[in-house]
Specification:
7 strands; 5-stranded antiparallel beta sheet; binds zinc ion; globular; alpha+beta
Length: 147
Amino acid sequence: MDNIVKYPDKFLYKPTEEVWLPLNEDHKTLIKDMIEAMYTNNGIGLAANQIGSSSKIFVMDVSNEKNNPQVFINPKIKKEAKEKLTDEEGCLSCPGKLANVRRPIYVGLEWICQHGKLQYKTFYHLPARVVQHEMDHLNGKLCIDYA
Ligand code: ZN
């Protein structure tokens, strides 16, 4: 099942909207669908607008075992490294395309978890890149547009 919204669909360029808390049943179903779509398509991150929702939510799983899905609701980057690194990125919405994107090597992220608690963490390496890629999605931006 491939229900991923693909480039050049304009929906991907529309910024998402903050989620009103507490989460309702629709949000819970959406989060379940997002995690399933991420795993089905062998992705390590997925933003809600990639499956047609305008909620400001993304999911990520960078574990080797693919058993540690993390849910980020209303995420905000609060801090970023001055030092940047360029690396290749792929995107489930842009199949067959790779983009070289220069990004800060770490970011401090604030978000609400699926249990409704405020979280803060600094992400480094691959998770830092995934977080920034998914934040771009939520802001209506695609990695291929950096080229
Ligand atoms: Zn993407």
